[in-house]
Design a protein that fits this description.
There is one protein chain. Among the domains are: about 50 residues, no CATH class; about 100 residues, 2-Layer Sandwich (60s Ribosomal Protein L30, Chain: A). It has four helices and 14 strands. The chain has a four-stranded mixed beta sheet with strand order 11-14-12-13.
């Protein structure tokens, strides 16, 4: 009886010693319960696992601009300082890289802040020192360019199957000629058109004769040939739909398009 009791005591003592030994050894790396279990590796206990860091302060030894992310020290995105400059035209503010400028005050003389970048001021328009151009010029995409005159006129109409300029239509061409003889005038295209009657080939030729007739009349009024070109659309671009004289009379025409 005493022997059995003695054996039981020895077994209990052995189990107690094993428990103490297990507690003294701690979890097996990389498992952990506290920072002390990772101390010999220079690491920290994070979510029961030894990691390089558990908070940002643990990354201070890695150098400036480091942060702890999921247990690993890494460079803060966009971080900058005297030894870590920003790329390109970016500017460092509060240790973070950002646009070259936030407003015009951050740009030098003759430049302005344009969507975060300092760019040269335009010659005219918004953000220019002088918004308007001189009277003989116009502002085009921030640049003063010679003002181009675009001449226009109502269509010149023709009789059926004819290409001659009718007397009541000549006033339109005279006004057009006065405009075209000016300076800085955009080139003009004269388009010849026909009504629907006749074949495709015949109407293309008739449209060309009508356009040439208008051009020759302008030439006689002093317009340089180089300012005017002609083309024919035949019956392919009617101004009025319909198969009657009212529509046909509107389709027998030349139109003037400034390029």
């Amino acid at each position: 009886m005493q022997r059995r009791t003695h054996i039981q005591m020895l077994l209990s003592l052995s189990l107690l010693l094993l428990g103490l030994l297990a507690t003294a050894c701690g979890p097996t790396y990389p498992k952990c319960e506290k920072d002390g279990h990772c101390e010999d590796k220079g690491e920290y206990c994070l979510n029961s696992k030894c990691e390089e860091c558990a908070e940002n302060s643990h990354c201070a030894s890695k150098g400036p601009g480091q942060q702890c992310n999921a247990g690993q020290c890494e460079q803060i995105p966009g971080y900058c300082d005297a030894s870590t400059p920003c790329s390109g035209r970016e500017k460092c503010r509060d240790n973070r890289c950002g646009p070259e400028c936030l407003d015009n005050n951050e740009c030098g003389e003759g430049t302005f802040c344009d969507n975060g970048s300092c760019n040269a001021k335009p010659e005219c328009g918004d953000n220019a020192d002088v918004r308007e151009c001189s009277p003989d010029k116009e502002c085009v995409s921030g640049t003063c360019q010679i003002k181009i005159t675009k001449c226009s006129s109502d269509p010149v109409y023709f009789d059926f199957d004819q290409a001659g300029i009718k007397s009541r239509e000549r006033g339109k061409l005279k006004e057009m000629a006065e405009c075209l003889k000016g300076e800085n005038v955009a080139p003009l295209s004269i388009e010849g058109h026909c009504d629907e009657r006749g074949t495709e080939e015949y109407n293309m030729a008739l449209g060309e004769r009508r356009a040439n007739s208008a051009k020759k009349y302008l030439s006689r009024l002093g317009v340089e040939d180089g300012k005017v070109q002609t083309t024919s659309y035949g019956k392919n671009r009617p101004a009025s739909d319909g198969s009657n004289e009212r529509s046909w009379s509107k389709n027998r025409r030349t139109e003037f398009v400034s390029e």
